[in-house]
Amino acid sequence: MIKIAVPNMTCKVVDYIIQALGGGGTANGFGLAAAYANAQAHHNDTD
Q1: Can you give the pLDDT at residue 46?
Q2: Is residue 7 within 8 Å of residue 46, measured between CB atoms?
Q3: Are 9 and 3 in contact, with CB atoms under 8 Å apart?
Q4: What is the largest CA-CA distance in the chain?
Q5: Is residue 35 within 8 Å of residue 14, measured between CB atoms?
Q6: Roughly how many angstroms between the first and final C-alpha of the chain, as a whole number?
Q7: CA distance 22 to 46
Q8: pLDDT single digits (tens) 10-41
Q9: How far apart are CA 22 and CA 4, in angstroms?
Q10: Contact 43, 10 (CB under 8 A)
């Protein structure tokens, strides 16, 4: 159960942060785009 819950929550948290920062959230200086891509990859592994 935890292997499914953690990737789902990670995707939600990173998505909220990117939305809060607007377009700047996807800039290279924050690293959030890479974190979101990584979270999505782990999220897709659990489906």
Answers
A1: 54
A2: yes
A3: no
A4: 34
A5: yes
A6: 12
A7: 28
A8: 888 888 888 888 877 677 777 787 888 887 78
A9: 28
A10: yes
pLDDT at position 44 is: 67
30: amino acid identity, one letter = F
What is the model's pLDDT at position 17? 84
What angle, rounded to 10 degrees, do the helices at 32-46 and 2-21 form?
150
DSSP secondary structure of 1-47: -HHHHHHHHHHHHHHHHHHHHGGGGGSTTT-HHHHHHHHHHHHHHH-
Tokens coding 8:
């789902």
